[in-house]
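Bumping with the actual sequence this time:
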Amino acid sequence: MAESILIVEDSPIVLKIMQHLLEKHQIFFPVFVATYGEAEIFLESQEHPFFAAVVDLNLPDAPHGEIVDLVLSYQIPCIVLSGSYDDQRRIQLQDKGIVDYIVKESRVSYEFVIKLLERLVKNQHVKILVADDSKSSRSFCKKALHLHLYQMLEAETGLQALNILHEQPDIKMLIVDYNMPEMDGYELVKTIRHKDNNKSLCIIGVSGMESGSLSARFIKMGANDFLKKPFYQEELHCRVMHNIEEMELIAKIQDTANRDYLTGLFNRRYFVAKAEEYLQTALQENRHLSFALLDIDFFKGINDRYGHDVGDQVLKKMGLLLAEKFRRFLVARLGGEEFCILMPGMDIEHSAQLLSGFKNYISDQSIDIENETLSFTISIGVTEKLKPTLLEMMTEADRLLYRAKEAGRNLVITSDAYIDADDE
């Protein structure tokens, strides 16, 4: 669903630039107005629940920034555009609670506005924990970062922060002060990085101490960044955004490395490593775990007759449907036309029924190519027999898949029986 953005700007050139930039982003639905009066009408009518607003500081009917107070009165995140830089004015606006103050210098300025809007959307799902024994320091950070829509949590001590991190592993960032009772910030970072082996959490150390070596100690122990108290709100925003984006970029690179380039499913290397963990857990806790190998029938014939481009379309279709129907399980493309699914908690009866339904669903699908429609079927081998290693389970599933091919294809074969193409 697109987010409604209120753009209040009287310059036709700026409006044209903003409109052009926002057209590229389907997540936004911009509403353009040129005056304070028009903005007031839109806001009072409540026809559009605006996610954020981008406003010109000097409007024909509001030359002294009155539009900022109007937008903030509706508790809408407000990005301010100005034709000139005024440091005192910037500080006043930040004290009021704006998201940012941006000077209209070039196209880069407007691109930064779009980046901020995108960041606000993402920030709603980013949790940040502030650990500081100073209530005023915690409040400052919470208030400043809440303006950028981050989910904010707080802790008074290092031990309390550690407990919160264990309870909520989806926390993305920790802002930690050095001086805290029970466990100081340095020891907290050390515990997170070395004892808990948590490498994904982004950590920013802060301190009001004069020691120049403290920042180096923090970073050597595993912190991503360091801020010396007191720091400006704008500096905090920049450091947090920079580190969050760097963390997201690393995660994206890692995810890309774990994905099959054609289908977007996990690749063999990632699947084997992750599936081995699930298998060992199932063995230790005596849990059900089903493993299935799936193969597209007569795939070589599809490539030979229609070409590899059409073959790629079939593989993409298969990957899309697998991701859609088995999203709660671990799914991967092993290579060529072979795919696999690991189903923790599923016994053979339920996994076979689920796979049989998927097999029938696949046979009802088609791909339009030039003047004809291409359909395809799949064969599946599935086992629940837990083996000491994943390779042994894969070998068993491969044996069952071979039986499905020999028995006529478009079948699901388990260790006990097979399910033919007409079974539901």
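The tokens above came from a reply further down the thread. The longest helix spans residues 233-257.
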